[in-house]
Design brief:
elongated
Length: about 200
């Protein structure tokens, strides 16, 4: 029977190599796990913002269609404006997730769009409140009141400002469509197909 005795040097090298391999294995596993988690966070962020943008586009589209039926800025149109504002609030609450999207261009485009829509929504809401107050004040003026003409002119200006704000909001939907399409492969969801659940009363 032959006995093979390992020298101390061989044992030491075996320990060193084993330690190196274990370290490399742990490093690779950690990197892989981090990569998977980043991709999962990116997909979750793309899904969230894709849904918010898609809902925003749908709401603004329905609001624009509502303006063409009955009173342009009647109760239904204004409820839709408030619904759009709630989508903006959802974005604001989750804005930190924006940085889970790797492409800086997409992040910037989403944020700029949300700022533009927010300003337009606030313009519509503020003008509507001012118009209501001006109409109440106008109703109390006599036909020969010296401030009547100025009040009517102010009312026309407010109405024009509200219309301009709404059109600016509507124009933003074109960028919304492009962003939703850019988020689709990241979210792995066809947001366009989900629009059939929007409940649009004006859909053909």
């Amino acid at each position: 029977m032959h006995l093979h005795l390992e020298t101390p040097g061989e044992t030491l090298w075996a320990v060193v190599i084993g330690a190196v391999l274990a370290t490399l294995g742990g490093f690779v596993a950690t990197q892989l796990e981090g990569f998977v988690r980043r991709r999962e966070r990116e997909r979750a962020a793309a899904l969230l913002f894709g849904e918010v943008l898609s809902a925003l586009e749908t709401i603004i589209t329905i609001a624009n269609q509502a303006r063409q039926h009955g009173e342009p800025y009647g109760p239904f149109t204004l409820r839709l404006v408030r619904a759009a504002r709630r989508e903006i609030e959802t974005y604001e609450r989750n804005r930190g997730s924006l940085y889970d999207l790797r492409e800086a261009e997409i992040r910037i485009r989403i944020h700029v769009l949300m700022v533009q829509v927010t300003l337009a929504l606030e313009g519509v809401s503020d003008s509507t409140a001012e118009i209501a107050a001006a109409q109440d004040a106008l109703a109390d003026l006599a036909a020969d009141h010296p401030k009547l003409a100025a009040m009517q002119e102010r009312l026309e200006g407010l109405a024009g400002g509200r219309e301009a704000a709404f059109l600016a909001m509507q124009e933003a939907t074109e960028e919304t469509k492009a962003l939703v399409e850019a988020l689709r492969p990241l979210a792995k969801v066809d947001f366009e197909a989900l629009k059939r659940f929007s409940g649009n009363p004006y859909a053909e």
